[in-house]
User: Fold this.
Amino acid sequence: MEANGREDLKAALLQYPNGVAVNGSQPNPIGDDKKISTLVFKVTGITCSSCATSIESALGELNGIVSVMVSPLQGQAVVKYNPELINATMIKEAVEDTGFQVDEFPEQDIAICRLRIKGMACTSCSESVERALLMVDGVKKAVVGLALEEAKVHYDPHIINTDQIIEAVEDAGFGADIISSGSDVNKLHLKLEGINSQDDYTVIRSALESLPGVDHVEVDIEEEKLTVTYEPNIIGPRSLIQSIREAGKGLKSYEATLYIPPRRQEKERRKEVQMYRNQFLWSCLFSVPIFISSMVLPMLPPYGNWLDYRVFNMLTVGLLLRWILCTPVQFIVGRRFYEGSYHALRRRSANMDVLVALGTNAAYFYSVYIIIKALTSNSFEGQDFFETSAMLISFILLGKYLEVLAKGKTSDALAKLTDLAPEKAHLLIMDNDGNVLSEMEINTQLIQKNDILKIVPGAKVPVDGIVVDGQSHVNESMITGEARPVAKGPGDKVIGGTVNENGCILIRATHVGSETALSQIVQLVEAAQLARAPVQKLADQISRFFVPTVVVAAFITWLGWFISGEARIYPKHWVPKAMDAFELALQFGISVLVVACPCALGLATPTAVMVATGKGASQGVLIKGGDALEKAHKVKIVFFDKTGTLTIGKPAVVSAVLFSNISMDEFCDMTIATEANSEHPIAKAVVEHANKLCKTFREQKEHHTEVKDFEVHAGAGVSGKVRERTILVGNRRLMSVSNVSLGPEVEAYISENEQNARTCVIVAIDGRVAGAFAVTDPVKPEAARVVSFLRKMNISSVMVTGDNLATATAIAKEVGIQKVFAETDPLGKADKIKELQLKGMAVAMVGDGINDSPALVASDVGMAIGAGTDVAIEAADVVLIKSNLEDVITAIDLSRKTMFRIRLNYVWALGYNVLAMPVAAGILFPFTGIRLPPWLAGACMAASSVSVVCSSLLLQSYKKPLQVEAR
Assistant:
């Protein structure tokens, strides 16, 4: 196999999961450096490949069309075009003119950006941000993740830009920073030297913008930095740096060096942690003396007697001291609660800040009223609540500090993934004959496609590539979870981030930047962490009414205790000394206000999803979102494809026989001509074996005859004309449909091989069987263990395949599957799944090929084998990176553990509120004398959020139920 001559190397190892049309700069195969837009839509009425061909031909004739791909299986069209020459409406009209109907057509191009959202405290906040974004003209979809503190926005770039989106978030009362946009796929950050004037920037910008493949140049004059967005297929980072150096003329000399900006997420996380820590410490600086003066010293006479010294009338030193110390806590340290309440009420919603502001204000301003009465009276005695306000704010800030610390741990698995890629790489400069001219160490970000890199023993592979020289073993466990090192030689693929164990190898870079498998894994996990699981709807519904309900409950509590106290319904001795009925009622009301916490409800689901998706990715299971994570725990039936899923997927021909007078040479020649155009694994095995037979029968290999009228019969085989002779190559079903009779000799051959789990490929020439090949595909060693373990989990296993019944039954018996659907075409697989779904069954589908994609989409949870096709990976909800069936169990078990953890989180979150609110309202006070002071209620509120996050973090200790054994 040649190192750099395969078409499949041009495609990314993992495709992006977004199914919407994205307006972005695409590499243009015809050499035009203008921006190319991509349009994705459905076409109904496609019945065969000729329909797809007619659509492709019609669109291909239009001016401005770069490429057209139409899938006859999915009925989906992907069109790349130049928006300056043609628009989406013209493309739609051209398709409809061919007689087909267009569905799911995007009204306009859609771009995607991600934002960091600051200031969100609970689900109510995230919903407010979503509403604010969706109200903006041009925004089509917005998803806000509370735990991740991010938003993903789909918008029309012709109507609105990212600056306006950020402005909309800020108008709603939250901070926002751009993380990435559609143009951020490949960015290069450079530090400039030799810049003396504005003209220098203009020269450099012009030099870069004139280069093919450069999309955008952004200059930061103050920092002397430059950011270039470029197309990696057209130009590379070293070429950009070289063009800057060449831009200098005469006495001018420009230099550009790579600048790696600090990770904004980590930087902001540290800043947030530091902010809450500092606010808590400042609050403690004032709150601790307040607590000592009000709760401790009065109980230690004579040390606390000085607090009772009267300054004026009934105003004592202790009261004045608590007022002075509490005021900075209330209005300076606690300013964030006022700001949060203002923005929440302005957008007609309520959050935790509203509860805290109401509770602390009630305590503070009632205490101020006590001070005023003490100043104006020489006989008034009243109890102040300054310690309530100050301690309440301190405990809430402590809770937020611990919560932020814990939330930072939820993305640890993702951070470890991003750190896998090495910082440096060894670049080899070679001549046309393959001789090494020089070697240099460069930053990984400066690697360009087709670079030759040297990987020494013990070093990490910097990017995805192909081995061009050398032999070694590579440890891929950090990406795939497979502990056993994999042998690598010329022609084998290597993944960025993996470790070279022993030998020295040379690789050619095939995927760099965001195209590497590692980058795409990180992007998939980030998208999954942002996606909202359906189970979170419960928290969303509760949060809408939560705060108003708590406020009403607090008011009723205060009113009930106050009226019953004034009416002498309860004994007077219930009221503590130095208090009256109003003050006791006020304490109960404030406690109810602050004990309830909507934050914990909002964090229950997203934190668990974040930890689970990150943990899954680190173990080789990519779960694309909360929806898939939730559905997987309901699965009761797992459908397995046979070829490439239950079997290794590399069929081999074990025998070839003739049933006519045709020569083996001519028989193989016609078979090769017909099967060469098929992508099916069995077809490739037949072609490979036939080629070997041809070499046996003739000394010099000749060019094989071309096939005409080639046609694929889904799930049956292929047909075509070779030298005006009609050739059919396929299974028994194809022969039956084509009215080709099978004689006793052929039937006996087929029966004998099917009993041995071999597939028979029959070759018919001009309506008569000419010969056949017997093909076998070894079963994966872990398949039987997986089926057995699924049975223990009360999950049934079903095989669905296009192969014949006898072969399928033999394979099923070998692995322990009792139910088999054989000779099923791709759409038939999806229909079988839908039949079970109509009976209320949750079905998972495990497959690896293009023909599995309809079933993967139809199933509740589609699981794609990582070594499978890009179409299958894109259609699936879960990607099993290391292609091991044991990870089917891992995905389902991880889903069950996560859903258990989410339910437990809801118990923690609701438990505090359901149990603590009645206690705070004083339900135990008449019987036990127990009451919950407001400051203690605030501590409970803070503890609820921390406990939920810590509960989610326990998923970090997840271990696979069925460990991978060395093979």
User: Anything to note?
Assistant: Residues 886-920 form the longest helix (35 residues).
